[in-house]
Amino acid sequence: MEKGILEKTGKSLEHWISVVQDSKIEKHKAIMDYLISQFNLSYGHANFVALKAKKSDAASQDSEDLIQNQYVGKENLKPIYEKLLVEIKKIGEDISIVPKKDSVSFIRKKQFVLIKPASKTRIDLGLKFKNKPFGIRLENSGPFGLMCTHRVQITSVEQVDPELIAWIKEAYEISN
To answer: Helix H segments across the chain?
Structure first.
């Protein structure tokens, strides 16, 4: 997006952030409306600038804070996340861990795992496969949509077992 806004407008992200700061507009929607109406920015670029100006996008926040915030009120699920993190890190050295506001992506060349505390009692682990059949435990991706092809619902650390780790390794292998 940052490269795109420079190409489209001829002005850097820093310029647009400065425009927003000079405007003294505080609310996200009002910033977007201003940028669209006054400077003819696209919806996507206006949203991107508003997020960056307010530092409310995931990339503007500390990774540990993002993860901590995911587990507020769901502290009982944090040991599951930590166990998954340890097991995934063992799989390969070329894994990028990308925390977002509501989930953590694990990426090789492509995302192969997504961990999301879905409720107060469950973590949803999304996996990306090609033509792998669904089963009782290895379900359709459900709320993950196109980000993942399959989902495993995890409610206890004990469910981070050899079968689950094998599925994670398989998703890792095909993400190359």
So the answer is: 2-9, 13-23, 28-39, 43-54, 63-70, 78-91, 162-174
Lookup result for tokens 């997006």? 1
* Whole-angstrom distance, CA of residue 88 vs CA of residue 171: 11
The reply to whether the predicted model has a pTM over 0.70 is no
Between 161 and 2, the more confident residue is: 161
Read off the pLDDT of residues 5-53 as tens digits, 9 standing for 90 and up: 888 899 998 999 999 999 999 898 999 999 999 999 998 899 888 888 8
Q: Strand, helix or coil at 146?
A: helix
Kindly state the tokens that stand for 86. 């340890």
- What value does the mean pLDDT take over residues 77-81? 97
In angstroms, the CA 17 to CA 166 distance is 46
- In terms of phi and psi (left: phi > 0; alpha: psi -120 to 50; beta: otherwise), the region of 91 is alpha
In angstroms, how far is the first alpha carbon of the chain from the final one? 25
**Are the C-beta atoms of residues 114 and 97 closer than 8 Å to each other?**
no
CA–CA separation, 94 and 40 (whole Å): 41
The yes-or-no verdict on residue 133 having pLDDT over 60 is yes
Separation CA 120–CA 23 (nearest Å): 41
